[in-house]
Design goal:
222 residues; 4-stranded antiparallel sheet; single chain; 3% helix; 1 helix
Length: 222
Amino acid sequence: GRTGDVEMSTVVLAGTGTYGQIYRSTDGGQSWSLVQRLGSASYVYSLVDLGGGVVLAGIYPNGQVYRSTDGGQSWSLVQRLGSESQVWSLVNLGDGVVLAGTGTNGQVYRSTDGGQSWRLVQRLGTQGQVLSFADLGGGVVLAGTSPHGQIYRSTDGGQSWNFVQRLGSETQVYSLVNLGGGVVLAGTNGRVYRSTNSGQSWSLVQQLGSEIYVWTLADLGG
């Protein structure tokens, strides 16, 4: 069918704060219903769809991962990631491999069973938060951190990480987006940085007006 038919069957989830709740839409975001609060969560910082009805959520302040197997209609606690307080970021690498970026110790956790169990990979330098991920395919993954605005890079699907560089004098890399063909963008303290070699080096593009946060980036294609 028509475009309208496609939109009407589109399920979308929203994670909120200050009450750590999941809302769900089944009509492409035109209407929303409360699903549930995730335990005693205050903020749902991250959501990732693994396909087949499996969805993961990362929360604050208990650094926990929740999991749904029915497309976000119900949720259960998986585990707390170490002694972390935030699960800032989640990325699905496929084949059951998922990464989680945390705070307050700037760690990367890895799951190989679709988020059912997790193990600590490593802390990224002396960073406090892993705020963002970008999956470039072929095992290459980028991570953006705080409080020193650093980029880290993995070439083995998140099993090990190397420091790439600090983006100027930035303090946070809030967002990352892969545009394909080796082009990646990073959103920082009001500025956008760009890499053309799959995240191995970066250059400043521009300051976005008088903004001080580039929280999110989205690739719409074309």
